[in-house]
Design brief:
With about 100 residues, the protein is an alpha/beta fold. The protein is built from three helices and five strands, in the order βββαββαα. Helices cover about 30% and strands about 30% of the residues. A hairpin with a 7-residue loop joins β1 and β2.
């Protein structure tokens, strides 16, 4: 199930402004990057789908981030989001005061 991706800007993330013309993938994994003509010739028997796209592609780019200040502030505050009764509020408040 090989796919050939090409058409837009493809950044390799190997250095500043490093780009290629195409990417060949198989079962969701990047197998090779390079010139469109070269990848088409090399993988012509395995290519099931050619995907022409517009825009920008960042292979393997995952936007994983944390708002650390907000997380720290949350740790300092009493969290009452899971309480169900007045009694639980009082218990959490007492517990929070001793920490």
């Amino acid at each position: 199930m090989g796919q050939l991706w090409f058409g837009g800007k493809i950044y390799t993330m190997t250095g500043p402004e490093n780009m290629v013309e195409a990417i060949y993938t198989d079962h969701g994994k990047i197998i090779e990057t390079g010139y469109l003509k070269d990848l088409k010739n090399k993988y012509k028997q395995q290519i099931d789908d050619e995907i022409r796209f517009e825009g920008v592609l960042f292979p393997g780019f995952i936007d994983s981030h944390l708002h650390i200040i907000g997380h720290g502030e949350k740790l300092l505050r009493l969290d009452l989001s899971d309480v169900q009764s007045r009694k639980e509020v009082i218990q959490k408040f007492k517990s929070h005061q001793t920490n």
